[in-house]
Amino acid sequence: MKFKDILCDQILILDGGMGTEIMKRTRQRFDYPELLNLEKDNVILDIHKAYLEAGADIIETNTLGASRVKLNEHGAGDRVKDFNRAAVNIAKKACAGKNAYVAGSIGPLGKLIQPIGDLSIEEAYAAFAEQAGILEQSGADLLLIETQIDILEAKTALIAAKSETSIPVAVSMTFPFEDTLTVTGSDPATTAITFSATEADIFGVNCGGHPENFEPIIREIVTHSRKPLIIYANAGEPEKKGNTVHFPLGPEEYLKYAIKFYQQGANIIGGCCGTSPEHIRLIAQRLKGEKPVKLKTIEPFFRASSRNSILTIGNSLPFRVIGENINPFAKKKLKKEFKQNKLDLARKYARKQEIAGADALDINLGKRGEDEPGFFAKGVSNIQAVTGLPFFLDNSNPDSLEQALRSYSGKGVINSVTGEKKSYERLFPLAKKYGAGVILLALNENGIPEKAENRIKIIKNLYKIALDQGLNGDDLIADPITLSLASSQASSHETLKAIELAFSLQIPTILGLSNISFGLPLRRLLNAAFLNLAVKSGLDSAILNPLDTNLISSLMAAAALSGRDQGLRNYIKEFSGQPESEPGESEPEKDESLEKKLFRAVLEGEKSPVEALIKKLIDQGKTGFEILEEILSPALQKAGKNYEKKIYFLPQLILSAEAMETASKCLEESFSVKKSTKPGEKIVLATVAGDLHDIGKNIVSLVLRNLGYTLIDLGKNISADKIVAAAIREKADFIGLSALMTTTLDEMERVIAQKNSKAPGIRVIIGGAAVSPSFAEKIGADAYAKDALDAVRKMKEISRQIDKKLPL
Amino acid sequence: MNSDKIHKLEKFNINIEDRRIFIRLGYGSSSGNINDQAKEMVFKAKNKLSSLLQPNAVFKILDYEATNKHPIFKDAKKVALCICTIGIGLEEASSKLIEKNKILDGFILDTLGSEAAEDVARQTDKYIAEKAKEMGLWPSKRFSPGYSIWDIQEQAYLFKILPAEDIGVRLTDSFMMVPRKSVSFRINFYDDKNKTSRSFS
Questions:
Q1: pLDDT, tens only, A635-672
Q2: B76 touches chain A (CB under 8 A)
Q3: Which CATH number goes with the domain that contains B114?
């Protein structure tokens, strides 16, 4: 039986950890473990044998870091062949006389691909192709591209391995954090959709956090992918004990998780870091040879992805909007920019459409000439850097499409393939190779059929050819074509009929909307009306302008009316609270109140409207103090809460505080409003002597003074004398000290000693990269604060205790 | 090659990974959370970055016997001492932004500066490592004063040996470098590869 058939027929057992076993046997650290393949091959042989004896069906070569790029880190890039060949030989030797497979391990390169990293896609491809080729030639039975942290890198490895070899290839991703995202931000569904569309023979997850984190990850994956599944986790999260690293889960405990992997649908199960032959023995005894669990078939949706989001389109799903605005044929400004090889405007449109709520973007960089493929690929990659949305690659040049697909992170969509032989013969293999979705366009050598039935015939025919070529149902979506109403009035009726036919065949549909109104006045009106009819006929998605608010509002109403909006949730969410107005009456002020606008400006860190809003509010009779207390402070406090709940990150908090600062300055300068200092709210802040780093202190200062504290910021490199003198002079309640460099920590102790002798009542809070809670305790500081908001908490706590006269 | 020579590097093609910037800005390692505003600000800052950088490095390779024989040089045949910087321009621009209540812009620029300085050090390190190999010796990893047994006061020794003023770097009383975005380090050259993986290397 072929490996792939065995895989579907019975559970196979993969071996366990390598690094921990090497450590156990040698009690020695090596620069990099691949060195052992040449210098201590007996150790590796011994480990392989132990795993085989424990019952492993597949053993992995000791080549995780044996690519040229990775070996270059150790100055051993020219020995790629030696390391990989030796590793396979050792594994083969261990397998002699046994019914076991050797999997050639291929790990990450240690450098990320552009534009996130600085490695070119060509260098990455070459390194993977080289290693895969050597592993196969040396006799590996399959390849395991594992511990992958970035989908573009893993995809590049897969394409290289598939082009270079003819053995089965598995891809396994790593989710290092509890929030189940890869290092470069892909969630499990995104990785599953991305690799389900590729030629990977097996897909799965290894290494990463605690195996209990795997349950939701696997659940997400099997929602979107039916690739055979490989799962091997670490024996818990590593704990440092002295100089050694310890993995807490013993064989029995790990087995419980292995059984869960099996129940969730895994086909290959083994162990990663910290698992030993004993772990594998228990798994083999329990699961080896079992029939894989049968999972439900996945929902028949069309699927696509970017680096960090997914797109699903289907009959039972909400209507999806694909943004049309990056298209130079509709926007002259773009055309001009593209001529100069510039992409600023395209990137801006990408973000605008994303913010407006588009589910994906159509990318047409239509530029003619020799440099077109390069420009398209570069453009796609650059625009991907600023948006999380999946892309429809709108281009008719196969070379351009190929280059763009190669550097696209995720599962992109080819827009489009037609019923013409030269189109599908060239583009279906591309989709297969790079793992892309495809729009099937209802036209062939004879043009666009007039009748709906004939359009669907072309689509059905294309659908069949695509499946024969190895594409899946979830890679395909049909476009029954919109023609201009001006050119043929009957055509719109046929388009709607074709949508109904596709709906009845459960083929997801998409339309390029704006064609309908081409050459006619008031195009937006026609677009909106036609979209409503199409939604009623069963259209699932359209390429349209998401910035056209009338169109989107009318779409939401149509979706609600045609059962596309469950419980009318989206409609109500979007429109509840909107003032009703009778036609003919003058429009009521639909804008939100000035108070709300100012609140939102500070919360979202928009400085520019702040001053004008304050002036208007004062004109309306609000006092400056009311503005400060009722609008500004609550807004920044909300930003602080968002930060603590991790809805906001540091930059957003800073922006919000900056907007608040602009507002306070305006109040102070134009209206002489100044908040009085309450007890417990006066702070002298400084970076200690010897330390010139004050960025962190500046941020703390900004946030604190805008949260209502009175700040005397002394600056950086300030001596203990000066700090204590200032605190006494200003009658401060607190001294806040920061230090970035470990070498200046002594200085903090000096400040505290001086303060204790001269003004023991003042409390000291310390922070900064070099400081820890235990250090704070050691030097007698009253508290350590990790950031500005933590400092607020600590100061309040201390003040409370002082009020209650409790000992600190 | 003449070991005693002062070497200067000034042609650097600075490369900064966005991911590292966002980590330094407080986003952790997952890029999914990064908001558009911050992304836009980082891109803008990156665009004007090159005009603010004056990357420079100066280094010298000494025979062990010619050093002050600090334990950090132990067992080395030769020792490369190096100071590199991205110049003062970026720091000044960052401070100006902060004064104008553009704290985040200043913070982002400062962060880019840290990464740029890291990259200059990385590239210089690579260059020096090549020199070691040309001499048939094995380079250690780079190591900076202020860590482990190499006290921060030893900065003074580096500044005595190297003409730091030529690249616009000076030392404060507390042994900090100005511009702040500067890196000083040593690389030991060994005759035996196994020595390169010892601690402090």
A1: 999 999 888 887 788 888 888 998 998 998 888 887 77
A2: no
A3: 3.40.109.40
